[in-house]
Design goal:
Length: about 425
């Protein structure tokens, strides 16, 4: 009988801690007096380590008790669900609360400033694939729709620590997995899958900030899979466009990004929608970064037409991820001009975008200011540009997009300015942690 997801979570956490201290399977085996093959089976979730083995492994890799606690959660949960009984475990919580708590503990292993491994994201989303294979059945929808709505309202405005939002998303996705198991009819399943797609896309965005590209792509894949299964055409467009945008930010700018943009546009089939506009926005940046001026300007023309045709509710939403206000178009045009070396035409567009961007969108306003600093450097105002970039980048978290702009800005420095103290500080700011 296959082991439950908690044992795979434990195995993923064991492997993470072993890799973090640079130990091989043989190294750990020697320290805890067992065989490397046994450790491999624990790490891949094929067999259960005993409590003593988990304790010895935790001590060998310096996990500080995290693996011991995860093992206890796995044993307790398995006991609750009728698996291997244990005489010394008392369970008072509901099984769902136990799984949620265990998932939160599992995530805590990875959110202390380190890049989250792709296998951890696979373990989180594992229940989605089992649901799609086994079609589960019982649940009410309004709370989940509200959760997704609330996240969408705060993606561009909240400046909470990265690990806090990631932890919240993982907890909610895990809880949603459990509701999916009890969904009783197709309309309910479709609605829950729509929420799952949105939360997974938001998680992918958070993972992109940790320089965890493989983990980001795993969550993007889960978002696309859930959107496809939901049957929501516009969501299918949006999840592909969202992934294409993350691809640009994480320098995956080759055929994979182009294919995602084209898939989104093909699915939209000429209909104005947010996802199609986001896909075109990403296409403009991809083409500008490749220094293809004519193609980039053509894409801007198509983006302008798409933006003009969007529903009023979409262009009027200047706060959430579900909006595409006109200042976004100004910003995209400015990016194209600046990337192509035409900061003169970019400057008034950036001024207009800054004036129109609400003050609560601190991140977006910082992006605009960084673009202005990039333009200053293109105009040979080196010291002023570097000082301005450092001034606006320091106070808030550095996102994957801001790394893109800072990297381009630094690449544009003349040779005699590369050693400037502010340039050195900016390199440190833009260096991913993990």
């Amino acid at each position: 009988m296959p082991l439950g997801p908690m044992w795979r979570m434990l195995g993923t956490a064991m492997r993470f801690h072993r890799d973090a201290v640079g130990l091989s399977l043989r190294d750990v085996a020697a320290r805890i007096h067992t065989h490397a093959s046994a450790i491999d089976r624990w790490e891949t979730g094929k067999t259960r380590p005993s409590a003593d083995s988990a304790h010895d492994y935790d001590r060998a890799v310096g996990a500080g008790g995290e693996l011991i606690a995860l093992h206890a959660e796995a044993v307790a949960l398995e006991h609750r669900q009728g698996g291997t009984p244990t005489a010394d475990t008392s369970i008072g919580d509901e099984g769902g609360d136990m799984e949620r708590r265990a998932a939160m503990r599992f995530l805590a292993t990875f959110t202390a400033g380190a890049a989250i491994p792709a296998s951890a994201v696979d373990a989180l989303h594992g229940d989605l694939w089992r649901f799609l294979e086994a079609n589960a059945n019982d649940y009410s929808l309004s709370e989940w729709e509200q959760i997704a709505y609330d996240y969408g309202q705060t993606v561009w405005t909240e400046l909470r620590p990265r690990s806090t939002r990631t932890t919240d998303l993982v907890g909610d996705i895990h809880a949603l997995n459990m509701r999916l198991r009890r969904a009783k009819d197709s309309p309910e399943q479709s609605a829950l899958l729509r929420t799952y797609a949105q939360l997974s896309a938001f998680l992918a965005c958070e993972l992109a900030q940790t320089a965890s590209p493989r983990a980001c792509w795993r969550s993007c894949h889960a978002a696309r899979t859930a959107a496809d299964a939901s049957g929501d055409r516009e969501l299918r467009v949006w999840t592909r466009a969202w992934e294409a945008s993350q691809s640009f930010h994480l320098h995956r700018r080759g055929p994979a990004a182009d294919a995602l943009v084209q898939q989104a546009l093909d699915l939209a089939d000429g209909r104005p929608c947010l996802g199609a506009a986001l896909a075109l926005e990403t296409r403009t940046r991809l083409l500008a970064s490749r220094r293809q001026p004519e193609a980039a300007k053509q894409a801007i023309t198509e983006l302008r037409q798409m933006t003009d045709d969007l529903p009023d509710a979409t262009t009027a939403d200047r706060i959430s991820v579900w909006g595409m206000p006109m200042e976004n178009l100004d910003f995209s045009r400015a990016f194209v001009y600046t990337a192509l070396g035409d900061s003169k035409n970019a400057a008034p567009l950036l001024d207009a975008a800054l004036a129109a961007t609400p003050p609560e969108k601190v991140g977006a306003r910082t992006n605009i200011a960084l673009m202005q600093a990039w333009g200053m450097i293109e105009n040979n105002d080196i010291t002023q540009g570097l000082t301005r970039a450092l001034e606006v980048a320091h106070p808030i978290p550095v996102t994957s997009y801001r790394r893109v702009v800072i990297t381009e800005l630094l690449k544009g420095l003349p040779a005699n300015a590369q050693a400037h103290p502010a340039a050195h500080e900016l390199r440190l700011v833009a260096t991913p942690i993990g």
